[in-house]
Amino acid sequence: MRAEAIDRVQLVFNLFDADGSGYLSAEDFEIMAERVVQAASGSGTASKEAMRAAFRRYWATLALELDVNQDNRITFEEYSACVLSPERFEATIEDFAVSLAALGDPDGDGLIERPVFLALMTAIGFERANIEALFDAFGPNAQDEITVAAWVQGIEDYYRADKAGIAGDRLVGQAGA
Questions:
Q1: Residue 39 domain-assigned?
Q2: Residue 63 is assigned to a structural domain of this protein
Q3: Does an H or E element contain 87, and which?
Q4: How far apart are CA 8 and CA 47, in angstroms?
C-alpha cells in the first residue's frame, strides 16, 4: 500500500470515528450521516435518505468484512488492513460517492458549487484549507463549479491503495504542503 493511501486511510478512520471512541461503530456512521445531511440544506428528502442509506451500507460492509469477532466495532488495524481492497469495497464506495455528490447537486445540473462542496466536506470533518485545495484540484469552471463526475471519481480514487498524486491527497496534512 502506498504511503499516500495509508495517510488517507488514517484520516478517514479518524473522521468516521465520530464519537471519538477509537473504534468505528454503527453509531459513528449514523452521527456522520446526520452531520452531512444537515449540511445539505438545499437537497431534497430522497437525496438525504440516499446519503443515510449509503452511510449505513458503508458500515454494514465494514462490519461484514472486518468485524471477525462480531463485537460491533472496528479497530484502526482492522480498518486499515482491508478497507482499500477494491474487490471488497468497490460497490460500497461507489454508492457512497454517488450519494454524496448528489447531495452536492440539489438542482441536478451535474455541477457542484463551491459553497455546497465546502459545507458537505466540512460536515464530514475535513479542514477548510484542504477542502479548498481539493475543490481547486478538480478544476472549477468560471462559475466556480465542479462536475459531479469529477467529484465521484475523486472519491473513488481516494479509496484506491494504488493511487498517488491524486486530488484527494490534498485532504491529508496541510494544504499546499
A1: yes
A2: yes
A3: helix 86-103
A4: 26
